[in-house]
Amino acid sequence: MDKTKVAVEIFNKLAKEYQEKFMNVDAYAPGLDFFCRQIKKEGAEILELACGPGNITRYLLNKRPDFKILGIDLAPNMVSLARINNPTARFEVMDCKTIGSLEKAYDALMCGFCLPYLSKEDALKLIKDAAQLLKPGGVLYLSTMEDDYSKSGLKKGSSGDEMFMHYHEGGYLLKAFKENDFVILDLQRQDYHEKDGSKTTDLVIIAAKSKG
Questions:
Q1: How far apart, in whole angstroms, are the C-alpha atoms of residue 210 and residue 212?
Q2: DSSP β-ladder status, 106-112 and 134-146
Q3: Which member of 11, 50, 84, 191 lies 3.0 to 4.6 Å from 114 by CB, making a disulfide possible if both were Cys?
Q4: Residue 64 lies in domain
Q5: pTM listed for this prediction
């Protein structure tokens, strides 16, 4: 099973439903506001990974209209919605696993809940790639569902569709940040309650690339 292909097909099919459910990101305002405050540069260039329908993009631009954001996502229908929701930003269909091929340097990277769809190996590579893309002092925001990696597996959504979801552990993520010369600026954990009564822990890490 190609886990990425399955996820893209589901997100493409359910793009509008996802937009209706997750367009409001106020629950994550503390971390998003903190991220914005760390970026002092006017007109900062930001790369957003797995942008979805542009929900986080819209929040950021409401706070900082000066941001120049490029959002990428593998689901074309998500990219189409993001363009409608954020006419001042740019969006492209692109795999976050290939950002290492980009030659441009960015002031900040936003990675909101992309990791649940990446393996541990791919998640660690993403942190390494982010370090290569960021300018010295550049800021990385990363959020994911935290739990034992061994609990990763197929999960059925409210639509009945199944896709592979990865849980990640704060320990190895923080180790990767350190190994790639990041300084942790903020770390937050908060509970997320599902409609079925289950609960997951959301982990938000905000870090800055060492200025050398």
A1: 5
A2: parallel
A3: 50
A4: 3-209
A5: 0.95
Q: In 3-state terms, what secondary structure has residue 87?
A: coil
Residue 15 neighbours by CB under 8 Å, 6+ apart = 53, 75, 77, 78, 80, 81
> Which residues touch 6 (CB under 8 Å, ≥6 apart)?
162, 163, 164
Quote the tokens at residue 34.
């903190």
Model confidence at 1, in pLDDT bands (50, 70, 90)? low
Is the separation of the CB atoms in 70 and 49 below 8 Å? no
The pair of structure tokens assigned to 128 is: 């390494």
pLDDT digits (tens, 9 = 90+) for 149-173: 999 999 887 778 899 999 999 999 9
- The more confidently predicted of residues 191 and 31 is 31
Mean pLDDT within 185-193: 92
User: Domain with 50 in it: what CATH number?
Assistant: 3.40.50.150
Across all residues in the chain, what is the average pLDDT? Answer: 95
CA dihedral 59→65→69→72, nearest 10 degrees, is 30
Query: How high is the pLDDT of residue 109?
Result: 98
Q: How many domains does the chain have?
A: 1
Residue with tokens 């950021």: 60
Which residue from 95, 100, 90, 102 is spatially nearest to 73, judged by alpha carbons? 95
Q: Which of 43, 52, 166, 151 shows the shortest CA–CA distance to 107?
A: 43
Rounded Cα gap, residues 82 and 84, in angstroms:
5
